[in-house]
Amino acid sequence: MNAPCIEALGDRALLIHCGETIDAAINARALAIARALEDVRLPGILDIAPAYASVCVRYEPAAWTSTDPAQAPFDRVAEHLRTLVNNAASDAATDTGSIEIAVTYGGQCGPDIADVAAHTGLSEEEVVARHGAAEYRVAMLGFTPGFPYLLGLDPTLHMPRRATPRTRVPAGSVAIGGAQTGVYPRETPGGWHLIGRTTQHLFDPARDPPALLKPGMRVKFIAE
Asked: Most exposed among 40, 56, 57, 130, judged by the fewest C-beta atoms under 10 Å?
């Protein structure tokens, strides 16, 4: 695996690239880097946000200003982070806990489950069984606050996204898109296939932290 590269992302952030594909090993490296940066608590670092294959780091330029006019704040931050980034082992402890999410599959809660069954050649019961059998890991949060992109979907359940996205997807909808599964925290548009719904609140601005899930967390779906 190639060493991560660091590039400027405007004048207040940088991006640490670990790869170019959705891959469990690459994601593990991104999560390990994020964990390493969080652990050192560097001054002037405002936010550390891991994604599938990268980590975005926002910083306060004033905290990294040098007396050398030729050295921009980005250069100082990147130089300081490079050793930490290169030494962050992808097998570092990135587990952030586990959770079970109760799901009502099919019917009005999962209007696309018949389409998933037809596409995969499985019965609806088999779709439910295989979706619930896997242990997933939160690769990242994105799209909308608290939306978890989950790795670990059974390959037999991989589905191309809907040709026509819905303008309204109910909050709590459990869905499949490509090689991923996820849960819509609130009502939004969406193009994934809806197979069930949960009553658990994945995002609550009044809660600390607001998001129920976080990168690295293990997730199991339990059929109700």
From this structure: 40
How many Cα neighbours within 13 Å face the side chain of 142?
Answer: 12
Closest CA to 214 of 49, 90, 1: 49
Please tell me the distance from the alpha carbon of residue 70 to that of residue 76, in angstroms, as a whole number. 11
Confidence of residue 87 (pLDDT cuts 50, 70, 90): confident
Distances (CA, A) of 149 to 5, 12, 103, 152, 198: 23, 26, 17, 10, 16
Residue 70 CA, chain-centre distance (Å), reads 37
| Coil/strand/helix, residue 151 | strand
Place of tokens 């306060």: 60
> Which ranges of 5-91 would DSSP assign to H, the alpha helix?
24-40, 73-87
Q: Give the model confidence (pLDDT) of 172-215 as tens digits.
A: 999 999 999 999 999 999 999 999 999 999 999 999 999 999 99
Domains of the chain are: 5-87 (3.30.1360.40), 98-223 (2.40.100.10)
pTM greater than 0.85 (yes/no): yes
Q: How far apart are CA 212 and CA 79, in angstroms?
A: 34
pLDDT single digits (tens) 5-54: 999 999 999 999 999 888 888 999 999 999 989 988 899 999 999 999 99
- As a whole number of angstroms, the distance between CA 204 and CA 209 comes to 8
